[in-house]
Amino acid sequence: MSATTPDAGATTPDRPGIDPRGPRFSAAITSVLLLAVVVLAVGGLDTAALVLLALLAALFAWGAIAGVARHPFGLLFRTLVRPRLAPPGELEDPRPPTFAQLVGLVVTGTGVVLGLLGIGIAVPIAAGAAFFAAFLNAAFAYCLGCQLYLLLVRARVIRTA
Predict the structure, then answer these.
(1) Would you say the pTM of this structure is higher than 0.85?
(2) Is 95 exposed, middle or buried (0-12, 13-18, 19+ CB in 10 A)?
(3) Domain count, the chain
(4) Which neighbouring-strand residues pair with 15?
(5) Which of 23, 73, 77, 155 has its CA 20 to 30 A from that of 139?
(6) In this structure, are residues 137 and 23 in contact, taking their beta carbons and an 8 Å threshold?
(7) Does residue 160 lie within any of the structural domains?
(8) Please, which residues have CB within 8 angstroms of residue 114's CB and are 6 or more apart in sequence?
């Protein structure tokens, strides 16, 4: 998805774009951590799985509230990875990946709440669903949350300025 997608809004000087490789880098780290939640939960380490999923939900909240440019994994990408890469061909509108963080928060947050309520199977299910979405982004540059954002913009549920 590029910053020039009409429904996503163009990148302007007052709304700078982000390197599209940053969210993919973040999704790769997130995928590994979500897979660890599933493995922990299936291995019987329910408390560890719940704690890790809660940490990931907090990171999704950070990205949804502060934006992907201020997310810890985004800062890690800009500090350690991006200086070693060629400049990106184009920049991306940060709103769709930020919305995707909100979707991740809803999925993982639901798993955490249900896990705390004693529905232990919700933890690996929520982690598995979030893993699927994060892995698609990391491996194939296909962001489900971004696509949902664009669909909601086209349906005029979300308004862009």
Answers:
(1) no
(2) buried
(3) 1
(4) 12
(5) 155
(6) yes
(7) no
(8) 122, 123, 126
Q: d(Cα 123, Cα 50) in Å, to the nearest integer?
A: 6
pLDDT in tens, 51-101: 999 999 999 999 999 988 888 998 899 889 888 988 888 998 899 999 999
Residues 44/124, Cβ–Cβ less than 8 Å: no
Classify residue 9: in a domain, yes or no.
Answer: no
Is residue 130 included in any domain, yes or no? Answer: yes
- Tokens linked to 8: 């996503």
pLDDT at res. 14: 53
Q: How far is CA 100 from CA 27, 29, 55, 108, in A?
A: 11, 15, 17, 12
Output the pLDDT for position 15: 54
Query: Which of 8, 5, 23 is closest to 82 using CA atoms?
Result: 23
Read off the tokens for 21: 């490789």
Domain presence at residue 159: no
Which domain range does residue 69 map to? 20-154
Please state which of the ranges 40-44, 106-110, 129-133 shows the lowest mean pLDDT.
40-44
